[in-house]
Amino acid sequence: MKLLVPSIVAIACLLLTACSSLTVPTPLGGAIDGPVAERFDGVWVTQDDPALDVLILRHTAADELRIVILEWDDDAKRFQPMQRDLLLGSADAGRLFVNIPFAQWDEETEEPTLDPRVGPFMPLLLDPPTDDAADRFVIYWPDFDAWAAAVDAGDLAGTVERSHDDVRKVDITADAESLAGFINGRAAEALFDMADGATAVRVADE
Predict the structure, then answer these.
(1) Rounded CA separation 45/127 (Å)
(2) Are 137 and 200 within 8 A, CB to CB?
(3) Domain residue limits at 65
(4) Which of 1, 39, 102, 202 has the smallest count of CB within 10 Å of its CB?
């Protein structure tokens, strides 16, 4: 199979305020303990990011979420849906990693395939709903400079593409053990932009 790049670029540009990208070969995070994914079930709107209009989330497994993004189409004068299955992983400080899989092109069937457990992935960081704040969560984008610095320093195997001084693309190629050791050896907030999150608020349970 080969990567179907336009598919992930489309969802990345909806989820991120810029189209810089980060890919990792294996999902970030540890095993999910308890009914964490269930806390996301419902209809959400974002307060901080105009790129996101309406999110419909439903857990499909203890560590999987199905997301449908409803984006307003000015030409069609209606919301247009885009669906993707996401894989969750535990992070430090009660946070979660959410791993967005790339679509891949199956050359035998000539159809795109999506498997939430097959990489590579684009990772984001979440402050999930809690007992005290059950109807909100916050999405944090990767700190592309921090990931690029780790590659430049030899802490992670990978490649970095830059445009002038701006990091445009970071592809991590480290094996699963090396990547997990890197993640476990530092706070997640050091690798994500904690100053520029998007807050989602639940407006309906279904």
Answers:
(1) 15
(2) yes
(3) 2-143+194-204
(4) 1
Among 204, 177, 169, smallest CA distance to 40 is for 204
Backbone φ/ψ region at 163: left (φ over 0), alpha (ψ -120 to 50), beta: beta
Number of domains in the chain: 1
Q: Is residue 102 part of a domain?
A: yes
Q: What is the CATH number of the domain that holds 106?
A: 2.40.128
14-67: pLDDT as tens digits? 444 446 789 999 999 999 988 899 999 999 988 765 555 678 899 999 999 998
Closest CA to 93 of 46, 142, 128: 128
Q: Say if 163 falls within a structural domain.
A: no
Please write the tens of the pLDDT for every residue from 187-204. 999 999 999 888 899 999
Reported pTM: 0.82
